[in-house]
Amino acid sequence: MSNYHLDHLQYLETEAIHIMREVASEFERPAILFSGGKDSICLLRLAEKAFRPSELPMHLLNVDTGHHFPELNEFRDRRAKELNVKLIIRKVEDAIASGIATPTPGEISRNRLQIPTLLAAAEEFQFDCMIGGARRDEEKARAKERFFSFRDGFGQWDPKSQRPEIWNLYNTRVNPGEHMRAFPISNWTEMDIWEYIQREKLEVPHIYYSHSRPCIRRQGQWLPVNDILPPKEGEEIKDLNVRVRTIGDIISTGMIESPANTVDDILAEIAAARVTERGSRADDKSSEAAMEDRKKEGYF
Questions:
Q1: Could you tell me if 38 and 45 are in contact, meaning their C-beta atoms sit under 8 angstroms apart?
Q2: 190-200 and 38-51 are packed helices; what angle lies between their axes, rounded to 10 degrees?
Q3: How far is residue 248's CA from residue 282's CA, in Å, rounded to a whole number?
Q4: How many Å apart are CA 65 and CA 83, to the nearest integer?
């Protein structure tokens, strides 16, 4: 009798690889949502483990809001090239120009505009399943997600009508025009992500580590100075040693003061943290129901 037991990370990895392989076996045109952020980096590593040495049976897809950190886009493009995986980028700017997305006058955030851009990309490439890096520990709405999240013909999600997932059996059936979202790392936490990055020796964009950056204080957090949302009159610019815990648009991603230069440093910070990971995202603070409303409309 074998005495081999999976440790916590190995169990999570095995579970996620199983979901990846379920997607590959059940869907004809899947895609991985890859931003270059830490969660999608782990997804890509899991896909490698699930399918290498064969080619990955899925493309990478990213919706570029035009408000991304340049460091993130550079990492995204380079990593896809290194792995020789096709990366499809669809830009909110182009969606606005073509009438797919319509901004509201005075609207600065492009969170809402990502929704029609993503759904148009799914229709354009006929993706029947899109794999995302959402985790249940991130936010209340994401805690309601199953591994396989059904989206109707309008790309919408109804949290009250989700399919049961008993004994790891999944109903992946979709009709033409419908699609599925799959979340292989649903059960992972922020700590698990960084422990996996450490174990697998994964490279991440340097903005996850301490670096010097000019910031302003707004809405109770440090925001990076940028041309899209410049400092207001009277706001003081400070050069701080900061890093990010979670990356969104450059206009809404809060920076935390930190000396963390290694994964060990980051793990120690997370263990001592009293603020949630997405507590530094201004786009999540507008309303407790903001994320759920966006997800119902088709957000990742």
A1: no
A2: 50
A3: 9
A4: 24
Using a pLDDT cut of 90, give the percent of the chain over it. 60
State residue 37 phi and psi, 5-degree precision. -75, 170
Residue whose token pair is 């096709």: 86
Contacts of 147 (CB under 8 A, 6+ apart): 19, 165, 170, 182, 183, 184, 186
Classify each residue of 120-151 as buried b or exposed e, where b means 16 or more C-beta atoms within 10 Å of its C-beta.
bbbeeeebbbbbbbbbbbbbebbeebbbbbbb
Instruction: Assess contact for 270 and 191: CB atoms under 8 A.
Output: yes
Which alpha helices (DSSP H) does 89-156 contain, by range? Answer: 92-97, 111-125
Q: DSSP assignment, residue 280?
A: G
**Per-residue pLDDT band at 288 (split at 50, 70, 90):** very low
Q: Structure pTM? A: 0.88
Q: How would you class 163 by CB atoms within 10 Å of its CB: exposed for 0-12, middle for 13-18, buried for 19 or more?
A: middle
Residue 250: alpha-carbon gap to chain centroid: 15
Q: Give the fold, CATH level 3, of 8-193+289-297.
A: Rossmann fold (3.40.50)
Indicate the pairing of strand 221-224 with strand 238-243.
unpaired
How far apart, in whole angstroms, are the C-alpha atoms of residue 37 and residue 15?
A: 21
Can you give the residue ranges of every domain in the chain? 8-193+289-297, 205-283
Helix axes 111-125, 290-297, angle to 10 degrees: 20
pLDDT of 105 > 90? The answer is no
Q: What is d(CA 13, CA 202) in angstroms, rounded to the nearest whole number?
A: 15
According to DSSP, residue 155 is labeled S
Question: pLDDT tens digits for 246-274?
Answer: 888 898 899 999 999 999 999 999 998 87
Using CA atoms, how far residue 195 sits from 36, 64, 188, 244, 281, in Å, is 18, 28, 11, 17, 22
Both tokens of 264, joined, read 């060990």
